[in-house]
Automatic annotation (TrEMBL):
PANTHER family: ADENYLOSUCCINATE SYNTHETASE
Organism: Pedobacter psychroterrae
Subunit structure of this chain's protein: Homodimer.
Identification of the protein by name: Adenylosuccinate synthetase
Keywords: Cytoplasm, GTP-binding, Ligase, Magnesium, Metal-binding, Nucleotide-binding, Purine biosynthesis
Family: Belongs to the adenylosuccinate synthetase family.
Upper lineage: Bacteria, Pseudomonadati, Bacteroidota, Sphingobacteriia, Sphingobacteriales
Record: residues binding GTP: 13-19, 41-43, 306, 332-334, 413-415
Cofactor note: Binds 1 Mg(2+) ion per subunit.
């Protein structure tokens, strides 16, 4: 029996998960998304082409790999249909090839879930979460509130009535907000997309994944968002509404904890965050702007400018502990090519103490990062393809991180393309 490997983000999302899942997918028979929804934007680049996936697993471009959208994912049928239409127009048709299945227990995002998300954010004003406005929070609320509609419900004869019942509830809530809306167009698109969703094979992800394991096949679970956005352990309330950590792969696919194999933790050589909430190492200055421009740090889903800062080791150690990371993957080293000096946050000064963990009151009492200066490598690494060509100072930076984080860095990414990836250990 095989086990499920997991790949997930260790920071606040956008670490480069899509790129690496695509790189690793030839090693796996199945790639399975386990949480989140179209708040995710996973970018892949190869052969001069670029794709952004929101709901579809990033194994979709590998001919041999099956892809599963797991029960823990929340699905916007309109967005999923659009993603598949775009893929088909680009010459990739996973449905025709039988390479995509969807969990019937996955919950559906309704147009009114998006309205509720927007109404809520509008009401919070300057205290808003900065959500992606995709309806993620309200959909997970209906899931845990036991009101939600699932993919499997779409084939029931009374699906429309169930839909109407939930929408009435949502309209009742919306009537308490000062929020204008017109559902007509969205509803038509929703029901068109629902018909389309019915043409994708529906499966029970728990049996599907465990069946793969029993047959000795290899499975990689693809996370969305990042550990610091986890609803339990992230910088609450500035988080998303799912468990983005390894535990989420168990509940989001239907696998037991002892079926988890390797855990790939992915992080940028620096750090970014999009939306509101604490970010101790944020550089709200020219250096941050430089990172944003060189790293093209603009959201793949929303186009919003990402906040940028130095790497945060207490946060990474926390994420490694929560996820049981066995292998690290460092991304976007090339973005630091031009810096004379880079910095790593080793501790925080917090309420008069020096601490090395993320404090509970991170929201109200901003921790001040203690920074260690590290000499830059001042070399273009985007064409480095052999470990021996890695500049000594970049190798030193990686060694330092491995020593601090006590987990080996297995892969190094030096550019957005599939081929700009090195295996280190
Ligand atoms: P994800 O959400 O974790 O899949 O990450 P995103 O796709 O939202 O953001 C990562 C961005 O960085 C995308 O634009 C990628 O094309 C790009 N990218 C990934 N790896 C590298 C890298 O090593 N260097 C550079 N310069 N860009 C990268
Ligand atoms: P990927 O998978 C970065 C952030 C939003 C907001 C908070 C809550 O591409 O890494 P939500 O819409 O989930 O209710 O928003 O979470 N967020 C992400 N930030 N990458 C993502 O996904 C994100 N998905 C949600 O910006 O701060
Ligand atoms: Mg992203």
């Amino acid at each position: 029996m095989t086990q499920v490997d997991v790949l997930l983000g260790l920071q606040w999302g956008d670490e480069g998960k899509g790129k690496i899942v695509d790189v690793l997918s030839p090693q796996y028979d199945l790639i399975a998304r386990f949480q989140g929804g179209p708040n995710a934007g996973h970018t892949l680049e190869f052969d001069g082409k670029k794709f952004v996936l929101n709901t579809i697993p990033s194994g979709i471009f590998n001919e041999k790999t099956m892809n599963l959208i797991g029960n823990g994912v929340v699905i916007d049928p309109i967005i999923l249909k659009r993603e598949l239409d775009n893929l088909r127009n680009a010459g990739h048709d996973p449905i025709a090839k039988g390479k995509l299945v969807i969990a019937r227990k996955a919950h559906l995002i309704l147009p009114t879930h998006q309205l509720l998300d927007a109404a809520n954010e509008q009401k919070m004003g300057k205290d808003k979460i900065g959500s992606t406005l995709k309806g993620i929070g309200p959909t997970y609320m209906d899931k845990t509130g036991r009101n939600g509609l699932r993919v499997g419900d779409t084939t029931l004869p009374d699906f429309k009535e169930r839909y109407n019942k939930l929408v009435e509830k949502h309209k009742e809530i919306l009537s308490h907000y000062d929020f204008e809306f017109d559902l007509t167009e969205k509803e038509a698109a929703f029901f068109e997309a629902i018909e389309f969703i019915k043409s994708i094979p529906h499966v029970d992800s728990e049996h599907f994944v465990n069946g793969y394991l029993k047959e000795g096949k290899t499975v990689l679970a693809e996370g969305a968002q990042g550990t610091l956005l986890d609803v339990d352990f992230g910088s609450y309330p500035f988080v998303t509404s799912s468990n983005t950590t390894t535990a989420g792969a168990c509940t989001g696919l239907g696998i037991a904890p002892n079926k988890i194999g390797r855990v790939f933790g992915i992080f940028k050589a620096y750090c970014t965050r999009v939306g509101g909430g604490p970010f101790p190492t944020e550089l709200d200055n020219e250096i941050g702007e430089n990172l944003r421009q060189v790293g093209h740090e603009f959201g793949a889903t929303t186009g919003r400018a990402r906040r940028c800062g130095w790497i945060d080791l207490p946060a990474l150690k926390y994420a490694i502990m929560l996820n049981g990371v066995t292998d690290l993957i460092m991304m976007k080293a090339d973005v630091l090519d031009g810096f004379d000096t880079i910095y790593a946050c080793t501790h925080y000064e917090h309420n008069g103490e020096t601490i090395d963990y993320m404090p509970y009151d991170i929201i109200t009492e901003k921790p001040v990062p203690v920074l260690k200066a590290i000499e830059g490598w001042k070399t273009d690494v985007t064409k480095v393809s052999q470990v021996e060509e890695i500049p000594a100072k970049l190798a030193d930076y990686i060694s330092y991180l491995q020593q601090e984080l006590e987990v080996p860095v297995k892969y190094l990414s030096v550019g957005p393309d599939r081929v700009q990836t090195l295996i280190l250990n």
